[in-house]
Amino acid sequence: MYRTPEGKDIFVVDGHTHFWDGSPENQKNIHGKQFIECFYAYHTGLSPKEQLWEKSKFEKYSADDLYRDLFIDGPDDVAIVQSTYLKDFYKNGFNTIERNAEVAKRYPERFIVNGAFDPRDGEKALEYIHFLKETYNVKGVKMYTAEWNGASKGWKLTDPDAYKCFELCDKLGIRNIHVHKGPTIIPLSKDAFDVHDVDHAATDFQNLNWIVEHCGLPRLDDFCWIATQETNVYGGLAVALPFIHSRPRYFGEVIAELLFWLGPEKILFGSDYAIWTPRWLVEKFWAYQIPEDIAAERGVQLTDEIKEKILGLNAARLYNIDVEAKKKALASSPFSIAAE
Amino acid sequence: MATANVSGDCQKELWRRLGEVNDPELDEPITEMGFVERADVTGDGSVDVDFRLPTYWCSPNFAFLMLDGVRKALDQLSWSPAYRVKLHDHMFADEVNRGMAEGKTFGDIFAVLAEDQDLGALRETFAMKAFKRRQEAVLRGLKANGLTNREIVGMDLPAYDVARFEPGEAAKQKPRYRAALLERFPDRRVDDSVFVTWEGLPIPPDALGAHLAELRGVRINMEFNGALCRGLKQTRYKELDVVDGEPTLVDFILDRVPARAAPTA
Lengths: 340, 265
Hints:
The complex is a heterodimer. Helix content of chain A is 43%, strand content 11%. Chain A is built from 14 helices and ten strands. Chain A has helices at residues 30-46, 55-59, 63-72, 97-104, 123-136, 160-172, 196-204, 220-229, 243-246, 248-261, 278-287, 292-298, 304-318, 323-331; strands spanning 2-3, 9-10, 13-17, 78-81, 111-113, 140-143, 176-180, 209-213, 233-236, 267-268. In chain A, the strands form three sheets. Chain A has a five-stranded parallel beta sheet with strand order 6-7-8-9-10. A three-stranded parallel beta sheet of chain A has the order 3-4-5. The mean pLDDT of chain A is 91. By secondary structure, chain B is mainly alpha-helical. Chain B folds into two domains: 2-109, GMP Synthetase, Chain A, domain 3; 119-233, no CATH class. In chain B, strand 6 and strand 7 form a beta hairpin. In chain B, helix 6 (119-144) packs across helix 9 (169-184) and helix 6 packs across helix 10. The interface between A and B is large, with 40 and 43 residues.
């Protein structure tokens, strides 16, 4: 719960968090080392200085760190914890669902654990989706289209194998498909973070919600266009939001575009923990106003009501969280973490 | 001392030429982005360039476009030196360095991995984005100067050339937009409007607002990459944020201080 300076309580769903192990012991090769270093560079590049972590903690933090940063020092009521396997880079995977489910077990009211699968695994992927549903009752999955798999350096949501997986998700009621569409990195020949495949998949799977993480940045214009056409496409603010600190005017331009094209119902807060921690993000977001000239040009405002939707109510709708019931349940289950 | 002066002049020319190479995705000079880690003219006049990108993962086709730009820039040096260009700490550094040394094309270097790569189309896309980003900055500058939409879209090249801006983005982009315009429309007449769409269509005065909104979208994307790249590069290069001449706590946390003194092998 975030209590505003005016004393209002705001329900917060953090749509994008991780519990990873990027430590040297778990790194399989140079790619694993470089992957966590790249994340760390995001952390150091966009965090306020007083929020910086040491590298060793960033590589592998404890469950207690996570609880404290999200729920005790942090304002999150519910955190959606995403799974990203990267088994070509990390011996035990980067943040597998087993690891996530374990950390979530202590506070089941607080966590939504999402799975992940790789359509390129064919039949095995389908079996795995059944396993995810039966074992963890997942409500959502995280898709990482740039992930390597043997000779393949990426895939598209519209690949025939992917469609088979989404058909199964639809059938099993796994409704929320989070898709990582972010900054340009590998692979070589195809831009696996291109957003146009979302357009087709969202049209063909109307029952599923497509949450495009990082709003497709740096392809915001393409993303906005698609999300305007498709009623079931949403934008996750992870990575876009930290600019609120380092480049507030720029963040104003981004959020104004999103509000103009998508409207306030389809934007979701996400900290991308542990790249960033939610407290400072939520505090700054609540205090933020879009610069006047930008707001005027686009005819949009970031009101308190809209902020409340973005911070929690929109995600609650997608994940069928009864906000009032959840508030009561959380109020009656206090926290305890190990003393340090 | 004559030798030293000659070598100093060469050094200046080298950096000037390198400064003409842009990061295609960001439309900013590679020297300003700090990607050129070292560029030296050695005793015998040959040139050594060390190149490093913000992350190990930077898209190899972008890396190649920049290195190809560096190669072309070095070919234009007045003393026609032998040169060596090396890409550091990139996931495909070995492949790229070997291929560059052998004068191969991107397609040759990455034949296996990049079946459907069309760098020509990619270059064209980047040229379009650069054109739009530069145009937006100048248009916003002219609006800030108080010109009406009609005055702006009716402006010809002689009028453009005498326009003045306060120091800032518009002033910086003015000559860069001029260059992009002439490259895009080499056959344009001198009294044609300076502000047309990438397709060469005129912009009616009452459509300038919508046109600017579209250009803003292009810039938002490019700035996102630019800001991330600067952030990542700063961390990766372990640059020292010096406050009052002393490293800050951050520098120690990030292990920047000892790294600064480490030898560059």
